[in-house]
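FYI - complex with zinc ion, inputs then prediction.
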Amino acid sequence: MDDREICEHLYKVKRPWFVSRVSVSDEGKRVDMYLEHEKGVRWPCPLCENLLSVSDHVRERVWRDLDSGLYRAYIHASIPRVRCPEHGRIQAKAEWSEKSSRFTERFEAHAIDVLLSTDTKNA
Ligand SMILES: [Zn+2]
């Protein structure tokens, strides 16, 4: 396994997405994973779920993910937009995150667990 495959395994990256590049900064204590998707994939409209071809992509975004050891982990990706006959040009859903969040869903779930356990101790 190379570093991209290790990241895909550890972070459960699923097709059509794949890790195209990994950058590790020892000084910054961070791992940056760059995701791309396979070409020719059809994506569901987030409103009606019709499968549609890619129209274009939004600018690259970055999501904070769960740490990898002592390193903070970040996912970079450009999410595709589709042109739906009913809903116009619209951004497909990133499966790892809510639409406008800067965190992955698993990061948010972990943060909530930590907050809840802290509350319990204070109570
Ligand atoms: Zn639609």
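Residues 105-122 form the longest helix (18 residues). The mean pLDDT is 93.
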